[in-house]
Specification:
The structure holds two protein chains of two kinds. By secondary structure, chain A is of the alpha+beta class. Chain A is built from 23 helices and ten strands. In chain A, helix 2 packs antiparallel against helix 5 and helix 8 packs antiparallel against helix 21.
């Protein structure tokens, strides 16, 4: 099936190139048949890439080591779930996933708009196929996943141990879905610029795709953070790593676009700003993909140095240059149709929110690329750490959360000042109450930034509750419905508005978690022998005993830790470290495990109030004599005899455990981050879900006479 | 076997992509884009009217402000409807009579 896979990839590249030509020719001279053919080229690319992806998946699931990629990223002992997801653990497989997702989403949007946007769609099709052609060229020419293994090995290397975590396996498809979905508004914005059809039509047509992109990217980022917290063993969920930052930047500009697009839809304003935002988002998404693969910045998440850097840089240069030229040459067509009527309007708040989001993106961009900038200017590579990022991002994040509460209580166009004051009364009281209540918690007053974030979050929550209550009340008065029915129909008929409010609550909860966990965290690094106790964040952690486990995949050495608070038993945590065998033939049957790769399994007690996080680093040096002795005396041991000897090492570790190093962390409200993410995702889904038929019909083209009569009476 | 499968995939892809080219030359109504643009603007205007109504019902606008905003929005909607009607009539005039 290797050849069929290669044929599919080559076909995808050729069809994509044909589609670019057909779409552009159809738009200029050839007419709708050529445009239609270009659109069908997208479906065909999606079809052949789906087949290629299925072939590769099947090879992984069957452990077909005649595929070089399968041999280097999977093994017969890899569990089935990880076999299925190991496809995108490699450079080659992840690029195939990228282009496949792009083709699928592009097919969906072009099918949905096949009878609309007749002028813009052919150009958008050409751009989407241009993206597809670039990535297809990469997988055909530079990173082909269908390379043969000659000879095929009897056993594979297995999946990178750090990636053996459910979050990490779902994280790439989510992230890539976000990136590739953002290519859709990007392509339609460019199409609108090329054709000078800059009415909100392209925004309306791609709105759900932009929202879906935001949703997937949010989920992907959070899954990455969750993986970092529970797998990496350093005790954090965000390290301002370049690859983490690369995913956050398009999220920030994409979030800004989702807000400012509403102003263009409603008022015909901010056209230049919106196209700039969406073009920046699309380019940042490609930049994110580039950073993971180029090796230009050091990151634990990157695939390492590769040959893909230059093509990516050239592609990004084309995107930046083309986008800039198009925006500059269309400035006359991008003039606003209306103007801000009042500073006290939702438009103004959205604009402020946009400025904060873009400022955040700029700070992160600067901090991420500072090593390259400093190297270019001074010849020395300097980097900035988390304190630098925190100094600028924390105040901006507080402003962002606060503004997410201000927007919903201000009317579009112009708010009535008296009504605005009344609308702010309850939320401000809630924020003040939160401040007073938190004054009772020891130490909170000494952290004004955290306190401000908590108050801003209380403000947002009160705003949303007030909005739901007022809306429900108004609906009950108008329709006589019961409160639950009125609430349900209010949200159902205004999904975008109330879905957005739910997102705001989720984001506020998330930032409360970030503020609390980063400000009030207790960390201790200790070395303990069995029976010894360490104290951290009000907990006593007692090292009860050493543990060990032997499986086909790895040797696990760990610890049983008793957690006590105020003298009472809370739980027993079992942190461990898994040692995976190296494929280096010079290492002996025991040394290949302990000198190979190792990963931490965190012992975690999670709760809404606090997480207690523990990781262990067993002292392998104490076992070194035994390991070396086995390697020296039985260098060719394999199978059952090797297992027996590894079992002896594990038993020895359990019976005579040396002191082990532990990292102990008590971190408040970390779970709020994941919970806030889930709330935000639920809000995003509400906003994404199509409006009920009745609500759409009110403004639908099927009843123009009725609507006209209704409007004429005004 | 792989050779045959590759040929089938190639044939299917060519069939999908080339099928529109076998049709007669299609026609593209000249005003269709304008119509779509106006229809989108009209939908957005209706959305604005509904939002203003909800803002009023949830206490963000005074009675006087709401009446002024609503009046302006409805006037803009009526203007859009007129332009839409004119574009529809122009498009109907361009179509060949059966």
């Amino acid at each position: 099936m290797l050849n069929l896979g290669r044929v599919c990839l080559t076909l995808a590249l050729l069809i994509a190139l044909y589609g670019v030509g057909a779409s552009l020719y159809g738009a200029h001279r050839g007419g709708p048949n050529w445009v239609d053919s270009g659109r069908r080229a997208v479906y065909a690319v999606a079809g052949v890439l789906t087949l290629a992806f299925v072939i590769l998946e099947a090879a992984f699931l069957r452990s077909d080591f005649s595929f070089a990629l399968v041999g280097s990223h999977s093994s017969t002992t890899t569990p089935a779930f990880y076999k299925a997801t190991a496809v995108w653990s490699s450079q080659e497989g992840s690029l195939l996933l990228w282009v496949w997702l792009l083709a699928v989403w592009s097919s969906l949007v072009l099918f949905a708009t096949r009878r609309r946007l007749r002028e813009v769609a052919p150009y958008a099709t050409a751009i989407l196929l241009g993206f597809a052609a670039f990535f297809a060229a990469l997988v055909v020419l530079l990173a082909n996943p269908f390379g043969p293994a000659d000879p095929a090995p009897a056993e594979g290397a297995g999946l990178q141990p750090l990636l053996r975590h459910p979050s990490m396996m779902v994280h790439p498809p989510m992230l890539y879905s976000g990136y590739t979905l953002f290519a859709i508004p990007f392509a339609f914005a460019l199409g609108a610029l090329m054709t000078r059809r800059l009415s909100p039509e392209w925004i309306v047509a791609t709105r759900r795709f932009a929202l879906a992109a935001w949703l997937f990217l949010s989920f992907g980022i959070l899954l990455g953070a969750r993986w970092s917290w529970s797998e990496l063993g350093w005790g954090g969920y965000w390290a301002w790593d370049p690859v983490e930052n690369a995913s956050l930047m398009p999220w920030l500009t994409g979030t800004a676009f989702l807000h400012s697009a509403m102003i263009q839809e409603k008022r015909g304003m901010l056209k230049a700003w919106n196209v700039s935002l969406v073009l920046a988002t699309g380019i940042l998404a490609v930049l994110g993909t580039f950073l993971v693969r180029s090796g230009i910045l050091e990151s634990i998440h990157a695939f390492g140095a590769s040959t893909l850097g230059k093509p990516f840089l050239a592609f990004i240069a084309v995107l930046v240059t083309g986008s800039t030229i198009l925006v500059v040459t269309r400035l006359d067509d991008l003039r606003p149709e209306g103007s801000f009527e009042s500073l006290l309007s939702r438009e103004s708040v959205f604009l402020l929110n946009n400025l904060v989001l873009v400022s955040l993106c700029f700070v992160i961009f600067w901090g991420t690329f500072f090593p390259l900038i400093s190297e270019a200017v001074t010849g020395q590579r300097a980097s900035v750490g988390p304190p630098w990022f925190d100094r600028y991002t924390v105040p901006l994040a507080i402003a962002l959360v606060f503004l997410s509460g201000v927007g919903p209580v201000i009317a579009w166009r112009r708010a009535t000042p008296r009504n605005a004051r009344r609308s702010f009364r309850l939320p401000l009281a809630a924020a003040a109450t939160a401040a007073l209540a938190l004054a009772l918690v020891r130490g909170v007053w000494r952290e004004p930034l955290a306190l401000l974030m908590f108050c801003a979050a209380a403000f947002v929550l009160a705003v949303v509750v007030q909005e739901l209550w007022r809306g429900t009340h108004a609906r009950r008065v108008a329709s006589g419905e019961s409160a639950p029915v009125a609430l349900a129909s209010l949200v159902s008929r205004n999904r975008r508005r109330y879905g957005g409010y739910v997102v705001h609550v989720g984001v506020a909860a998330l930032f409360v978690g970030v503020a609390a966990s980063s400000t009030f965290q207790h960390v201790r690094d200790v070395r303990l022998s069995p029976g010894q106790t360490a104290r951290v964040g009000g907990y006593d952690v007692r090292y009860l005993r050493a543990t060990s486990e032997l499986s086909r995949e790895k040797v696990t050495l760990g610890a049983a830790l008793e957690l006590r608070r105020d003298g009472r038993h809370v739980t027993t945590l079992m942190p461990s470290r898994g040692y995976y065998p190296s494929r280096d033939p010079t290492l002996g049957p025991a040394g290949r495990y302990f000198d190979g790769e190792a990963t931490s399994e965190v012992g975690l007690r999670a709760g809404l109030r606090r997480d207690v996080w523990t990781a262990v680093e067993p002292d392998i040096d104490a076992l070194r004599r035994m390991i070396d002795g086995i390697d020296r005396r039985f260098p060719l041991a394999a199978g059952d005899s090797a297992t027996l000897m590894l079992g002896a090492i594990a038993d020895r570790y359990e019976a005579l455990p040396p002191p082990a190093s532990f990292r102990l962390i008590v971190s408040p409200m970390v779970e709020w981050i994941w919970l806030g993410g889930l709330i935000a995702a639920a809000g995003g889904l509400i906003a994404l879900w199509p409006a009920p038929r009745a609500a759409r019909r009110r403004a639908g083209a099927a009843h123009p006479a009725h609507v006209r009569r209704e409007l004429s009476r005004a | 076997m792989e050779y045959v499968l590759s040929l089938i995939v190639l044939a299917a892809a060519v069939a999908v992509v080339a099928s529109p080219l076998r049709r007669g030359r299609g026609t593209e109504p000249a005003l269709e884009a304008e119509l779509a643009s106006l229809a989108a603007a009209k939908e957005a205007k209706y959305g604005e009217i509904r939002d203003a109504e909800l803002d009023f019902q949830t206490g963000k606008l005074s009675d006087a402000d709401y009446r002024a905003v609503d009046h302006a929005l409805r006037a803009e909607a009526i203007e859009l409807m007129r332009r839409l009607d004119a574009a529809r009539e122009a498009a109907a005039g361009e179509r060949p009579h059966a």
